[in-house]
Amino acid sequence: MKKRTLFLTGLLITSILFITILFFNNLANNQREKAVLDRMNSVVGEYENMQTLIFMSEIFGQDSTCVGLQSTLSTMDKGLWDLGIKIDLYRQVTENFMHDPFYVEQKTEFNRKEVLYFAMLKKMKDMCAINQTIVSYFYKKKEECPDCDAQSFVLADIKRDLENINKENELAIFSFDTDLGLSSINLLARVYNVTSYPSIVVGNATYSGLHNKKETINILCREKKLSIC
Amino acid sequence: MAFPYYPKMNLIYSLIVSLVWFLSTYFNVVFLLALLSRKDELLKFPKLKGNQELPKVSIIVPAYNEESTIEQSIASLNKIDYPKDKLEIIIVNDGSRDNTGKIVNGLKGRSILFIDNKDNKGKAARLNQGIEESTGELIACMDADSEVQSDILKKTTPYFRNKKIGAVTVTVEVKDAKNFLQKIVAVEYAIGLSLFLKVLSYFSAVHVTPGPFSIYKKEVLEKIGRFDTKSIVEDLEIAYRLQKGGYRIACCIATKVRTITPETFKSLHKQRKRWYSGAIYTIIKHRNVVLNSKIGYFSYIVPYVFLLIFLGLFLFAFSVYLGVYHLIRSISFFSLTNFNFLSYMTLNKFDFLTLSTLSFFGITAIATTILSMYICMKLSSIKIKKNLAGVVGFPFIFFLYQIFWASSILAVILRKKVGWK
């Protein structure tokens, strides 16, 4: 092989390898987006199911529909939680190269769904006497809120502890990204008097600043006794 | 957090990873292509012609405090298969403070010329002194801690029939690799000071004539002004001048020299600091070789390698920075949960889709390194099973390189004195 040919062949092989990596990355990106969309669709399905059940409860009475509602709630709760984690993880993976608008859109959509679910759960809690602690967690991006990631980590850890003992339904955590500019989230923040970040709202009480796991569990247990209290 | 971190860092980091990946993979691929396309010629060397008169060779061995190795070195020289009247051995004592002089005096008898200097002037000066005293057409320079194979002259001297050849290098093998570090270096030498130089010789781009044993045409040495006594890497510096002078450096891997290598990390660091800071001083001194089309591929390959080294070093430092940042961050997060690792590990299942582009770059870089290593092992004298420790440990030498290069660059910037002692 001539020297010139050798250098050109080398360049061709390296470029093919490079393009192959980018191709696989693109393939993985599509799979990530598909996984997020599938989960989002599943959550939307559960949400519509819940709306139907609420509508039915108004016609046929609460007793007959509350059992069905509770089952839908637990599925939706898990679906939303997993979806939130996936969106954050996949966004981290792709943000090395680009600020992918897909994840920003999905994050916005996810937060919209969370607000809806949150409102519905609040309503259901009284209607069907649902025994679940609801936590609303308000956060901002890292640059404006250095402690927000740490608080997210603590809340996720508590949720994992409950999952480990199959009691994840005892706690519903709603993470609201206040940077998205959603009017519903801004309204919620105003209602609960959230002025600094991170802030967690349990019941009607707002707790601002970073709380470690022990402190957070204490806050949660003030509202209702959880299995980890 | 005390550790400054900006989101833009991720993008910069990713771009550097991509660049280093591309440059290093390209280098790797070209190296392998060159090696594989000529693998049948690897062990070939120009044969002696029956009626050809052999050139006279002077072997110069500078020695400084070499009492533990010089006897074996001379013994190996005595076994060289070459007509006695065509071989001259010159041992030049560089003011040794041990028994080197006594040992050589006890051994001489055969055609050994011993120049017993009492003062210490350095290796390059002693090589030049040996050249001054020599009568051979060819000058072989050998380290006093090395041993040559008996066929070394019969396999290297025929190269000089080609008038363009100014020097010939041979395979450098590690003698008695005992510990893990030495076994890794043995693999490094088998690839770097054998196959790598062979491939570079295809492109007339050999950048070093290794000190353990290299053979030069005396006339060429005289023309380019012998060895540079100010250089701490005289074997590298002279290769640059040979290239600039338009002479080719051939590489004969059909024969070898065996040499010792540092036993400890500290001594290896000292050796590499001399090599690498010497390499920096040399490229600065001969900066006119860079992208000089008159010199050929050498003028492109050398700066390419330097670019790769500096980018690699920057990437390494960047990775360490980000690694420490994420480590501190993780520790601070886990400290909030009383270090509840168990639930984190059990519930965070592996998801293939969380592998980023950088992971793909990392995986392919490791794969191509392993492939190159495997091919090199197959083509070299190193047997994988016999040298398993060195083969397994070899990839880690890239981390050591970063440390050595960083300290060498620092030594150059701070103008610290780096030398043999």
How are the SSEs ordered, and which strands pair?
The complex is a heterodimer of chains A (229) and B (421).
Chain A: H1 3-60, H2 62-94, H3 101-127, E1 133-139, H4 148-164, E2 171-177, H5 183-191, E3 199-202, E4 205-208, H6 213-223
Parallel strand pairs in A: 1-2
Antiparallel strand pairs in A: 1-3, 3-4
Helix pairs in contact in A: 1-2, 1-3, 2-3
Chain B: H1 8-37, E1 57-63, H2 70-78, E2 87-94, H3 100-107, E3 112-117, H4 123-133, E4 138-142, E5 146-148, H5 152-156, E6 165-174, H6 180-202, E7 213-217, H7 218-224, H8 234-244, E8 248-259, H9 265-285, H10 298-336, H11 341-347, H12 357-379, H13 388-393, H14 397-413
Helix pairs in contact in B: 1-10, 1-12, 6-12, 9-14, 10-14
Number of helices of chain B: 14
Largest interface: A-B, 42 and 41 residues
Counting helices, strands and paired strands, the structural category of chain B is alpha/beta
Task: Pick out the low-confidence regions of chain B.
Answer: none
- Multimerization status: heterodimer
- Neighbour order of strands in the largest sheet of chain A: 2-1-3-4
> What is the helix fraction of residues of chain A, given as a range?
55-70%
Mean pLDDT of chain A, to the nearest integer, reads: 86
User: Can you tell me the CATH class of the largest domain in chain B?
Assistant: Alpha Beta
Rg of chain B, rounded, reads: 24 Å
